[in-house]
Amino acid sequence: MSRLPRPTASTVFLWGLLAVFGVVTVWLFLPYLQYALLAGLLGYVLYPISSRLSRYLGRTLGAALTVVLATVAVVAPVVFIVGIAVQQATSILQGVTESMVIDAGDALLARLGVGADTMDVVDMLVASMQNGSRGLVGNVFTVVGATAQFLIGLVVFVFLFYYLLRDGDRLVAWTRTVSPLERDEMDDLLERCDRLLWASLVGTVVVAAVQAALTGVAFAALNFSNSVFWTLVTFLLSLLPVIGASVVWIPASIYLLVVGRTIDAVVLFVAGTFIISGSDNLIRPFVVQHSAHLNTGLVVVGLFGGLAVFGFLGLFIGPVVVGMAKHLAEVVARRHGADARGQ
């Protein structure tokens, strides 16, 4: 059995410096972690487009043009759709009249056995909101500071996004160079990371977008009001593997049945079962051609854990982190087994 060479003082010193500067670098990134993650995800998705443009326009111009195209083709439509959805959500809330709220509140308080008047509760809430508004005015500098931090984060996002598009291949090559892993292990690690990212990001978003679009078309055809709002809700829920679009179209089918639109209820239920939710089984194999094959339980833990740690972007980051941890455990187990056989 051969012993590992004892580390020299210079080696220990270098590793110590690496640890210190690594921790400080992470600490510097923490305030803008969300922006950095978003830049990384978009850079991963749009890098193939930037790479093709760079063949004809050069790295710098190709990456810059990709950023502009992403802004026009992705950000602008998303802002437009979200704006319409917010307007429709406001109209839904305005449709709930004050008398409906008071009647429902009285019934709920009576059922709970609470001897209070709903108007008293409403007055208390209004007073709390007034106090909160005065507090907001008093903390105007906090609001200004948050706005400044957002603008700085936006600048960080744009620069990271641009440089990842321009130098993404160089970053991967540098990672291969500094990695202490064997070449085949590193290749396998990068390939697995690519599979996880593709399955978690591209596959999930495409399937959710298709299901949301189908739901919106069905709602519009059945004369549902505020169909854009429900389309956006369906998209967000379809990002979750267990929940999905059925949480939207099943209650809608029940609503149609209750109000006497039996045929429309049956049509929506059949379309939801076989077309909207069934599209997952048809589209996902084509979109996720090299799936990561993660266990559903691990995906759920990664989704909700990532959501708690990283916010909305954790829906995509969480499964990747869990999948990479699983793969690294397998690599360590294989290497340990090989070392044991070698002894």
TrEMBL record:
Family: Belongs to the autoinducer-2 exporter (AI-2E) (TC 2.A.86) family.
Transmembrane segments: 32-49, 61-86, 140-165, 196-222, 228-249, 254-277, 297-325
Primary site of residence: membrane
Alphabetized InterPro entries for the sequence: AI-2E-like
Keyword vocabulary terms for this entry: Membrane, Transmembrane, Transmembrane helix
Annotated localization: Membrane
Membrane topology classification: Multi-pass membrane protein
Protein name: AI-2E family transporter
Organism of derivation: Halomarina salina
GO cellular component, one term: membrane
Claim: Oxidoreductase is one of the keywords in the record: no
Signal peptide as annotated in the record: none
